[in-house]
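User: I'm curious whether this sequence folds into something compact or stays loose and floppy. Could you predict its structure so I can see for myself?
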Amino acid sequence: MLSLRIATIVNVCILGYWETYGITNIRYDNTNNCVDGNAWTWWFENLREGEEVSMTFEQIINDVLEHEGGYVNDPLDKGGETNFGIAKRWYPDLDIKALTKNDAVNIYYNDYWKPSKAEQLPNNLQATYFDMCVNMGQTRAVKILQETINSTGSTTIAQDGIIGSITIKSAVNISKRRLQAYRCLFYSKIVNEEPSQKRFYYGWFKRATTT
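Assistant: Here's the prediction. I'll summarize afterward.
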């Protein structure tokens, strides 16, 4: 705690110096995560994200279940028949309508959480990334994570949809807000390619920007 306070004081002094000499638009490394390039904005955004603590699977899955809701069988939804977000399309042998919440949680833990390696990512990205794995599949979620990492310009990694050590290590270069932005970009592409999916866009957008 003491070291954090000292680091905070030092950084405020540095930013005060920048402000005095009119160099608040300085950029290097992770400053391109900032929405406006301003040094003050960049520092406060990163301080706020740095305060986020690691969430457990139990905490994250509660938010996922809230987004997914209960039983749905919308003919226009490509997911088809679903309950708690578990789709008949991917689990054809399950009685989706009779699925319990505990059943769904067990599926999410074994088939989504463990393979996703979400707990190995920076704290501020874990919930967003895992929710993406649930909502669009792990391969697509990882590709968007990798695309987001490459968008900073600080490194270039393969966008192969594989959550390996290089992707996990490189994820420290991005902010939660940047990942949310590229998630929204993916949904926009879906709507552009298939206008019938536009009816779902606002819900996707809300989910992406609040998780």
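Summary: Residues 1-15, 23-51 have pLDDT under 50 and may be disordered. Residues 2-20 form the longest helix (19 residues).
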